[in-house]
Predict the structure of Transporter.
Amino acid sequence: MKTHSLVLAAAVATLFPALATASCGAAFCTVNTNWTTQSALTAPEPSFDVHYEYIDQDQPMTGGDKVAVGQIPHHHDEVSTVNRNLVATYSRGFGNGWGLAVSAPVFERDHRHVHNHHGEQIGESWTFTELGDVRITGRYQLGSGGDLLNPAEGGVTFGLKLPTGRFTVANDENERAERSLQPGTGTTDLVLGAYYHQRLNASDAAWFAQAQYQHAVNSRDGYKPGAQFGADAGVRKGFGQGFGALLQLNYVHKSADSGSAAEPADSGGHYLYLSPGLSYAINGKLQVYGFVQQPLVRHVTGVQLTADRAFLVGLSGQL
């Protein structure tokens, strides 16, 4: 059963790394990546998850339509943002229904846009590798259900996203990047969620559903990120020795950013993704996994950069 629980670790997250798409296209994958901390809440063993995300946002969109760079005139014509995110999570259950997870992202980000200045087109770019905002999330299991062959568990999650990432990153010309591109928002955000999952041991399968809401409780230097709501559902089916097939639907709705340093006319939207993946249990305490995320629906406010697909690979297990 330990091997099966670890294979499930590629299916649902303790925290939801919500999409942070804005005009310049800073982003997370929305794939859930760590089921261990929810499927084994009573186990005292600590667990970890480390995954790498690659999102190349080079497709401008307005509403639900693709457009060319500069097709709709703006002060800045966004060209591309390449996101390479490394996210590490440490989680521990306390054996009484309570648990805690701490997650820290590191962003390697390359952004290019064209600055339209008095009829002149000036190319500008930013490249940086920075620690992002750390998230601390607690959880409480409300109860168990199902039967011995089909055990089910549900609970709530709650916590904070802390303002640990910088929001003053500048390029070689000492021009600060747009706030939506920065590695940190500068704000403290409240995170609330709920989850439910069930293991179907007789068929070596499982399914889950999860929802989460994130809202900034303050603004910082003229910027407040828009509230985000995410909902996920997924299944996992075992096949072969240690292999698992994974499939998720990920939905995100993001409100517009606000404040004098924000771009409310070019932020916010809603997105639906299909995310198939595979996992492999190396042994009873370690497994690897990978996902490809394909957008089914993209509807943005104003003009924003989007990605036609995203990729994620990771490693998780018990310590």
Q: What stands out?
A: The helical segments are 2-7, 36-39. The radius of gyration is 20 Å.
